[in-house]
């Protein structure tokens, strides 16, 4: 794999039935419990967490060996964050931006530039990976909305 080859760009939008401040706080509160939200089996280790930056690593066992990634997330409250990811199988530069929509809903815009490493071979087809990412964010959305409803009831 040519490390100088241009990255492939992936984009999608997702909506949540919750106000923007809640969505931002929920999406940027990284924790070792996050794999459960993705319904995936991997280990997340938080290395640094502050009001402006989060650094964490994910490790998963794959049929061909271990897959590792380190994420450096720059928080840009109240509606944006950026992640730079270096890993054994890919690198990413990802921008996330939230916008308020009618009816107390929030839209997430995801734009990521992804490069595969020599271990991964090549990037997956654009439509395939965007569909996988949308599904992952649908699962996040269900958990986010459930948390929002629970907090509204208790608050």
Number of strands: 7
Fourth CATH level, the homologous superfamily: START domain
Structural class: alpha+beta
Average pLDDT reading:
92
| Shape-level CATH architecture | 2-Layer Sandwich
The CATH class assignment is: Alpha Beta
Spatial strand arrangement across the major sheet: 1-7-6-5-4-3-2
Summed up, the domain count is 1
- Please state roughly what percent of the residues sit in beta strands, choosing from under 5%, 5-15%, 15-25%, 25-35%, 35-45% or over 45%: over 45%
The level of helicity is: 25-40%
Write the CATH fold name. Alpha-D-Glucose-1,6-Bisphosphate, Chain A, domain 4
**What composes the largest sheet?**
7 strands, antiparallel
Output the number of helix runs.
Answer: 3
For the record, give the distance between the C-alpha atoms at the N and C termini, rounded to a whole number.
53 Å
Tell me the Rg in angstroms.
16 Å
Question: What order do the helices and strands follow?
Answer: EHHEEEEEEH
Low-confidence stretches: none
The outline comes out as globular
Structure in words:
With 155 residues, the chain is an alpha+beta fold. It has one domain (8-154): START domain (Alpha-D-Glucose-1,6-Bisphosphate, Chain A, domain 4, 2-Layer Sandwich). The protein is 27% helix and 45% strand. It has 3 helices and 7 strands. The chain has helices at 20-27, 34-38, 126-154, and strands at 8-16, 43-49, 53-62, 65-76, 80-87, 90-101, 105-116. The chain has a 7-stranded antiparallel beta sheet with strand order 1-7-6-5-4-3-2. Strand 2 and strand 3 form a beta hairpin. The radius of gyration is 16 Å and the shape is globular. It starts with 7 loop residues before the first strand and ends with a helix.
